[in-house]
Specification:
Layout lengths: L1 H6 L14 E7 L2 E8 L14 E3 L16 E3 L24 E5 L2 E4 L10
Antiparallel strand pairs: 1-2, 2-3, 4-6, 5-6
The structure holds iron/sulfur cluster.
Length: about 120
C-alpha cells in the first residue's frame, strides 16, 4: 500500500506514448506546429527507462519565421550571440530577455538583430 501511495496506482497513470504519437498541435503567430513523440538522439532509445518525449522543431537547423520575420524558437534552444542577460553554460533561449513564451516550449525571439528583413 505504501508503495502504491509513492508511485501511484499504475491503472490511473496515462499510457506511455509511442514514438510518432501526437503530443499536441500548437498554433502560434499564424503558424501551426505538430509536435509528436520521439527521441532527439538515436542513443536515447537505448538508455534505461527510455520513453518517447515531445520533439520540438530544430529551428537552428531549419529556421522558421512569422509573417513579420520574427524567428520561432524553443525555450530549450542553445542561445545565440545576441543573448540578453546573465549567461552561463546551462543557459538556453528561455533565460534570455528576448525570449517571448508562446505555448509549451515554443516561443519567439524578439531580438531586433534576429528579425528577418524582407527578401
Ligand atoms: S536573442 Fe533570441 S535566439 Fe538569441 S538567445 Fe535570445 S531568445 Fe535565443
Amino acid at each position: 500500500m505504501f508503495t502504491t501511495m509513492l508511485v501511484g496506482d499504475p491503472k490511473q497513470r496515462p499510457p506511455t506514448p509511442k514514438e510518432g504519437d501526437l503530443f499536441k498541435i500548437i498554433e502560434l503567430c499564424g503558424k501551426t506546429f505538430e509536435i509528436r513523440y520521439g527521441f532527439y538522439e538515436e542513443r536515447d532509445r537505448y538508455t534505461r527507462y527510455a520513453e518517447p518525449i515531445a520533439i520540438y522543431p530544430d529551428f537552428t537547423a531549419q529556421p522558421a519565421y512569422t509573417d513579420d520575420g520574427i524567428p520561432f524558437i524553443t525555450a530549450i534552444q542553445s542561445p545565440c550571440k545576441n543573448f540578453d542577460g546573465k549567461q552561463d553554460e546551462n543557459s538556453c533561449c528561455e533565460d534570455c530577455g528576448y525570449y517571448l513564451h508562446g505555448e509549451e516550449l515554443l516561443g519567439t525571439c524578439t531580438c531586433p538583430k534576429n528579425k528577418k528583413i524582407g527578401e
